[in-house]
Amino acid sequence: MRLASVLPVCALLSLVACAPPTFTAEVKGETTVPAAPGGIGTLLEAFPAIGSFSSLDFDQNQDFQNQGVTKEQVSSAKLQSLQLKVLAPADQDFSFLDTVEFYAKTGDREVLVASKHNIASLGLKAPNPVLALDLEDVDLQPFITAPSMSISVRGKGRMPSKEVRLLADVKLDVQVRTFN
Fold first, then answer.
1. 51 in the Ramachandran plot: left (φ > 0), alpha (ψ -120 to 50) or beta?
2. pTM here?
3. Which has the closest alpha carbon to 49: 87, 102, 109?
4. Is 6 contained in some domain?
5. What total of structural domains would you count in the chain?
6. Which site among 2, 84, 107, 163 is 20 to 30 Å from 151 CA-CA?
7. What would the pLDDT profile of 10-42 be if each residue is shown by its tens digit?
């Protein structure tokens, strides 16, 4: 009787011990949305690029280096979170933004990884609101192991009355191969 109750626990522990190692990798970048000319609400047709999201090489990522992992060892990578935060001005909200979409790209391959629609109606108030995006269930392993990848942003709305500085924070759940 006692042995029967111990066996399921041992089986569970052995399964947990066999799970591939995982860690969180983070990539951050800033962009500035320009103010509307003359402060008049002009349509925002293109979202400004986030410079640090172009030509990403995860072998250079601090979290990969801290783990002693190269991008070739990645067996799976999925978004854990993607957030946009208003850095400045502190009294700015997201009412100027209707839609935002983030794409992973390498070579001629591009895939939607996160988006948010009807942002202005969410009521995210200043100071320094944070917008959590809806994530797509996409394995980014082929992008991360490529020679380089980029994360591009597309958005629509209205140009804000003042220049707005945003921080994008991407967290990835990275699974590593233990055997090659």
1. alpha
2. 0.86
3. 102
4. no
5. 1
6. 163
7. 444 444 455 569 999 999 999 999 999 876 778
